[in-house]
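Design a sequence for this backbone.
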């Protein structure tokens, strides 16, 4: 049975991605700083016949990333898909005109060093097998710079750049790399609409990136939307 490891699992996109891949027979590893908080999701997924387990990982700690992913492999088996989407609302947001070394460092640790540690752990096995998928999630600030997100936007832009370069290097060897950039995201119904894009990047493999831009109307209940309205999605 195939395994997806969601590094940065939470009640929004993490939950939706877990359900999407789980519905296709994947075992799901939910990795976060507080795995105890994932137990309700483990229970929910079980009601849908999805095997899952929670693991502790702090994306800013390279040893934690390595040990957490090793625990996944030991318990669930080889990792076929890695989805990287850490978040930490405790970290400072700083504008492009007010950056400090510390502001930049904490976001680089999260989105750059964390991603490199995770990929370094799973990529060698994927290349050896000639199969596998690595998916990165950022906000749309990685594509469309936002002055108020000076430090985090720049770190996410680095991750996006690397995703494209990694795809160019790994795709000829059977490993898909993709990136999803989400604008104006809030947990809720939109997560369920966006999650299938991850499955498309994993299975169709001809695209590298999905950019999802949401406006106010996207958050209306379906019955209250104008006819045909859906989140704006494009590949870049």
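Sequence:
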């Amino acid at each position: 049975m195939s395994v997806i490891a969601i590094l940065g699992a939470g009640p929004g996109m993490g939950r939706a991605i877990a359900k999407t891949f789980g519905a296709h027979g994947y075992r799901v590893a939910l990795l976060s700083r507080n795995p105890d908080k994932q137990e309700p999701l483990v229970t929910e997924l079980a009601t849908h016949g999805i095997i899952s387990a929670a693991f502790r990982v702090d994306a800013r700690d390279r040893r934690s990333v390595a040990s957490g992913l090793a625990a996944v492999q030991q318990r669930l088996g080889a990792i076929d898909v890695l989805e990287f989407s850490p978040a930490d609302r405790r970290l400072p947001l700083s504008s492009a005109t007010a950056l400090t070394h510390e502001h930049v460092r904490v976001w680089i640790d999260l989105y750059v060093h964390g991603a490199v540690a995770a990929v370094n752990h799973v990529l060698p096995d994927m290349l050896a097998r000639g199969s596998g998928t690595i998916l990165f999630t950022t906000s749309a600030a990685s594509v469309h710079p936002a002055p108020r997100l000076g430090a985090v936007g720049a770190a996410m832009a680095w991750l996006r750049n690397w995703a494209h370069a990694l795809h160019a290097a790994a795709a000829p060897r059977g490993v898909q790399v993709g990136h999803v950039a989400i604008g104006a995201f809030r947990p809720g119904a939109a997560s369920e609409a966006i999650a299938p894009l991850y499955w498309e990047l994993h299975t169709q493999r001809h695209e590298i990136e999905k950019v999802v831009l949401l406006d106010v109307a996207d958050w209306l209940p379906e019955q209250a939307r104008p006819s045909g309205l859906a989140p704006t999605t494009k590949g870049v």
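The chain has one domain: 3-234.
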